[in-house]
Design goal:
Residues 4-170 form the DJ-1/PfpI domain. With 208 residues, the protein is α/β, with parallel strands linked by helices. The protein is built from seven helices and nine strands, in the order E-H-E-E-E-E-E-H-E-H-H-E-E-H-H-H. The strands form two sheets. A seven-stranded mixed beta sheet has the order 5-2-1-6-7-9-8, sandwiched between helices.
Length: 208
Amino acid sequence: MINVYSYVLDTLADWEIGYVTAELNSGQYFKKQSDKVSVKTVGATKESIVTKGGMKVIPEITTDEIILSPSTVLLLPGADTWDDPRHKPIIEKATELLECGATVAAICGATTALAASGVFDERIHTSNSLEYLKMICPNYKGEAYYRNVKAVSDNNLITASSAGGLLFARIILAKIDVYSENTLESWYNYFNTGDPKYFYNLMDTLTH
């Protein structure tokens, strides 16, 4: 069982994790021998939050209920409220997860919280820009490990810019190995280009 936890907080940027949560939760294109995946929302408390898109989300569990395991995946979305002290425990949990071999995937504003905690000091990463990280996080020391790309993976740490949601999803899906290589390539190419031929390619991969 792969336990995927999607952290939710006020002003969450809905679109940034939309691709990956939809695919992991639905399992519609999973390969036949794929591990089962459980997707749960996690909050600082179980009080409802409101996303940037105006949707109300009630967290299913709290940070202390996350299972520490190499098969765990923690998704940290962008939001304008990462500087709220109530989110410190999830960043501490992210560090514990990285240390135990679990996957932590952060996009946009969530990267600032990891940068501020020192996670990026010796790991390859990206964000909205290097200048953005340095401005938001005065104690950031990871400039040598910054990569100017939409999304990047360094072993079990995956990071992305606000424009990298699709590539972010592809890297996560590849990491946990729930799609066949051909299915993932066709899926990504279709949403990246909009060319219908890739959709038919995607459907074809599911019949073989």
